[in-house]
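Q: My collaborator sent me two sequences in one message, no labels, and asked for predicted structures for both. Can we handle them in order? The first one she listed is below.
A: Yes, handling them in the order given. First sequence, followed by its C-alpha cells:
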Amino acid sequence: MDIMTADTRAYRQGEPAYFTGSVWLEPVIEAPDPARARALRVTFAPGARTAWHTHPLGQTLYVLSGVGRVATRGGPVRVIRAGDTVWFAPGEEHWHGAAPDQVMCHLAIQEGLDGQVADWLEQVSDADYTA
C-alpha cells in the first residue's frame, strides 16, 4: 500500500505546447508498472482548453465542477457539466476545456500503453472552440 497525502501532491501549470489558456494539473494516481492507471484532476480557467490529442487506450472524463466544452475531430462542440462523464475511444482525436465564461474541473482517467498516455497534436483554433 502507498498513501499519497494531499499535502504532498503539487499542482503544476499545463504546458503551453498542450494547452491554450491557464490550466492546472494535479496528479491523482500514476500507478507503477505493470498497472496502467493514470488520473489527473485538471482545472481550466474560462476559455482554456487542451490541444487536439488522442489516447492509445481511450480516456474518461468525469466533470467535478463548472461547465466545459468537448469535441471530436469533425464533430460538434458539446457542453459538459458537473456530474457528466465523457468517454473518448482509443485513437479518437478530441479536445476538452472550460466554457468561455466558466471555470471547469474534471478528473481525467486514462491508461498508459508502453509508457505513452497521450499523443499531442496541434492547438485548437478559436474557430474550432467557438463552432
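Q: And the one she listed second?
A: Here it is, processed independently of the first:
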Amino acid sequence: MVVKVSELTPAASSYEDGDVIFRLLIEPVQKGEKVIVDFTGITSVPSAFVNGAFVRLLEHVSFDQVRRTLNFVQSTRQINDLIRSRFEFVAEHRNSWSQG
C-alpha cells in the first residue's frame, strides 16, 4: 500500500490532516502489512501532523510494529528528524509514565 500525503491532505499542517493519514494507516499497520508513506511535494510538517498521523499508532501497536511496517519515501531531513524525535520522546516518556 502506498499513501501519498499530498494527494490526501495537501497542507499536512495540522493534527486533523494527520488524522486523515492515521485512519488509512491503522488497519494495515495492525495487520503487519507494509505501507509506504510518500511525502512527494511536502517539504516540512509540524509536530501536530506527526502526532496525529504516526505517534498515535503507538496507542495501538508497538514501536517495533510501526518500524517493521512503515517506510517513508520522498521525505526531507526535517520530516525524518521530526518523526524520529517524536517517536523517541514517546518511547522515553512511556517508560517513565509506566514507572510512575
